């Protein structure tokens, strides 16, 4: 598999694991608080910036079927259910991607086992843990493959400098070629660093390449950043 495809496979699975880990943590929190009657109500998850996952969309369900020949279909169905139950993710997750790739079931199962060992919310800094994984994959793969395809990855140091220069304490942030959303991530990190309020920031962007736009939406979603990235038509 080409690296351009591999990053979508890995990042999609990490997103699924992360979303499920946060869901389970919130579910256990509700049970401990005596809110067992509300475990299937989306609102009680969304209010804590947690995506609601139906049973077939949870990581535990995928892992229970990891050794089955149709595991790719199970993953696609899980991602579709997450997107359907969470309007904020509309157009962000792959559509029948794993089934179309025709991956070797044994190798996919091995990858699932590896990702299953990652505690995405260890220490309570979940956005940073998963965010660093995203930054690594997006940076390494984009730098290696981008120039050949006519796309160029902006180095993180340049993005950091831009964020420091514009000082985005409030108002709108717009990036007409947002790629995987690095400018938005660093801008919101700037706000956190200077103890500002992220609620005072509105994020807007455009990205022509559909798969990159999906990565941007996932990248922002794992950090709890709401953004309007349009439909991709420039």
From TrEMBL:
Keywords annotated in UniProt: Methyltransferase, Restriction system, S-adenosyl-L-methionine, Transferase
GO MF, one example: methyltransferase activity
InterPro entries the UniProt entry points to: D12N6_MeTrfase_N, DNA_methylase_A-5, SAM-dependent_MTases_sf, T1MK-like_N_sf, Type-I_RE_MTase_Subunit
Highest taxon, organism lineage: Bacteria
Record's signal peptide: none
Ranges of residues in domain DNA methylase adenine-specific: 127-228
EC number: 2.1.1.72
Any one biological process term the GO annotation gives: methylation
Domain (N6 adenine-specific DNA methyltransferase N-terminal): residue spans on this chain: 1-113
Gene3D superfamilies the UniProt entry points to: 1.20.1260.30, Vaccinia Virus protein VP39
Entry keyword annotation includes Transferase: yes
Secreted keyword on record: no
EC class of the enzyme, as a word: transferase
Record's protein name: site-specific DNA-methyltransferase (adenine-specific)
């Amino acid at each position: 598999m080409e690296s351009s495809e591999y990053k979508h496979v890995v990042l999609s699975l990490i997103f699924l694991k992360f979303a499920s880990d946060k869901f389970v943590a919130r579910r256990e929190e509700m049970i401990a608080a005596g809110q067992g009657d509300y475990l299937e109500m989306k609102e009680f998850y969304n209010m804590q910036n947690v995506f609601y996952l139906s049973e077939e969309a949870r990581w535990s369900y995928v892992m229970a079927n990891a050794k089955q020949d149709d595991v790719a279909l199970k993953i696609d169905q899980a991602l579709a259910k997450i997107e359907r139950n969470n309007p904020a993710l509309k157009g962000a997750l792959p559509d029948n991607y794993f089934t179309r790739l025709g991956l070797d079931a044994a190798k996919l199962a091995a990858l699932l086992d590896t990702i299953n060992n990652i505690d995405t919310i260890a220490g309570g800094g979940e956005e940073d843990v998963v965010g660093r994984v995203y930054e690594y994959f997006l940076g390494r793969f984009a730098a290696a493959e981008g120039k050949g395809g006519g796309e160029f990855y902006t180095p993180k140091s340049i993005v950091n400098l831009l964020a420091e220069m514009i000082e985005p304490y409030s108002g709108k942030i717009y990036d007409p070629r947002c790629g995987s959303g690095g400018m938005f991530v660093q801008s919101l990190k700037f706000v956190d660093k200077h103890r500002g309020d992220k609620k005072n920031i509105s994020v807007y962007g455009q990205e022509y390449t559909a798969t990159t736009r999906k990565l941007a939406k996932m990248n922002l979603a794992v950090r709890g950043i709401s953004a309007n990235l349009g439909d991709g038509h420039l």
